[in-house]
Amino acid sequence: MSGSDQAPVFNSNRMVVKKVLAKSQHEGDGAVVRRSIGTRELRNLDPFLMLDDFSVTPPAGFPDHPHRGFETVTYMLEGTMTHQDFAGHKGTIQTGEVQWMTAGRGIIHSEMPAGEGPQKGLQLWINLASKDKMIEPNYQELTRDEIPTAERDGVEVRVIAGESMGVRSPVYTRTPTMYLDFVMSPRAEMHQPIPESWNAFVYIMEGDIVIGSENSSPVSANHLLVLGHGDGVSVWNKSSNPLRFVLIGGQPLNEPVVQYGPFVMNTQAEIEKTFEDYQQAKNGFEMARYWRSQ
Hints:
seven-stranded antiparallel beta sheet; mainly beta
């Protein structure tokens, strides 16, 4: 939505309350990630636990590892990743595709690059409420053509979760979530409603963003911007280059978070029980003793 005739469709514009530069670090087996949520600067943003902007070049990758108590959302920006788990689920995620994995009571899986050169994407960790942490694992996978898109006045959006410009994603979000991938042409503007009670942030992949107020200073790529209170956000692209960013929001769980690596529960006792289950291959980790990815 561009031009001065466009007005916000909400009452209170969210402003940036925190800016985090996603710095490169090593993760997995030789992979490089730019992590923003899940760092010393931003431990978590309820219900979000981690955001990685990853680049993986074979033979690097993320070999066999466990999860319990949350969801992972992998969105491929460039290239291909293959996935397999100890329950026999296998899949390939290509450019523009999404895997929404609910780890629930337990998953052991691998995530490895399938093509030559760098394979790039975003991985978001979303916490599960205490009542959902021990549910059976589940997958939702969307091909590029299954992700709804809309375009208006120089603004294109891919609706991975939630709703924008009148189109809605088919993804079921157990923890209510919106996940929108915007590309804005030079001099375009957009106004996106966000539920007032939700936490929300923007992560910039390309270009320079002006957000919250038309007079705000532009912010460059690889920054995560935490948004304050309000029921929507306005964005402008005042540069001569395209702007690409994701806008992600979620309903806070307001529950204690006790995390130890890939295990996220509500109490220390539950974390200790998770270690016991994993080491003794029980309560969701029964296949841990025998399974190895191929």
